[in-house]
Design brief:
Length: 175
């Protein structure tokens, strides 16, 4: 039996395609090896990048960061920003803990009660029977007035272009 093949000649996925099959220490170890390889790769290109920077007269970065002591100011700024990030993180974690204490494992979201035909008919001021016909239709042309109230409804057999604003309808709604 060859690597990657299962019983009766079936092919199993290789470990590289299923990293969850590896143990956590092994995954972390290979992640560290990969990170080290990338650092070596970047380090190999540092002389080329340095020569290119000097050729393009980008030596002002060296002057500001090394000669004028800009690196110490940068580290000081990092400390200040790290404190701000820690403060925000503490506030967010505190808020999450308060919400957890308030609601525990309960879900605050509940489903709304279904809207019945009677309620819809009363809301739109239409007859229950007409609303039932409209709900069973596949295509409707609804005309509204300037305040959004239903003025007329036309049951269409097939989809048609939208009627022009204010066009007459066959079925007027009692207002």
């Amino acid at each position: 039996m060859t690597a990657g093949s299962g019983p009766e000649g079936t092919i199993r996925p290789l470990v590289i395609e299923r990293p969850e099959l590896q143990s956590m220490p092994r995954r972390l170890g290979w992640a560290a090896v990969t990170a080290l390889a990338w650092m070596v790769w970047v380090y190999v290109w540092v002389p080329v990048a340095s020569a290119l920077a000097w050729a393009l007269e980008l030596h002002f970065v060296y002057r500001h960061m090394v000669v004028l002591g800009g690196f110490e100011a940068f580290v000081g700024s990092l400390r200040f920003f790290a404190g701000g990030v820690a403060l925000i993180a503490c506030a967010l974690i505190g808020w999450a803990k308060v919400q957890e204490m308030r609601f525990g494992g309960r879900s605050r979201r509940g489903s709304r009660a279904p809207v019945g035909v009677e309620h819809l008919a009363r809301h739109y001021r239409v007859d229950d029977r007409e609303l039932a016909v409209w709900r069973s239709a596949q295509c409707l042309a609804v005309t509204h007035d300037e305040h959004g109230a239903i003025v007329a409804v036309e049951v269409l057999d097939a989809p048609a272009p939208a009627p022009e604003r204010g066009a007459a309808a066959r079925l007027a709604v009692a207002g």
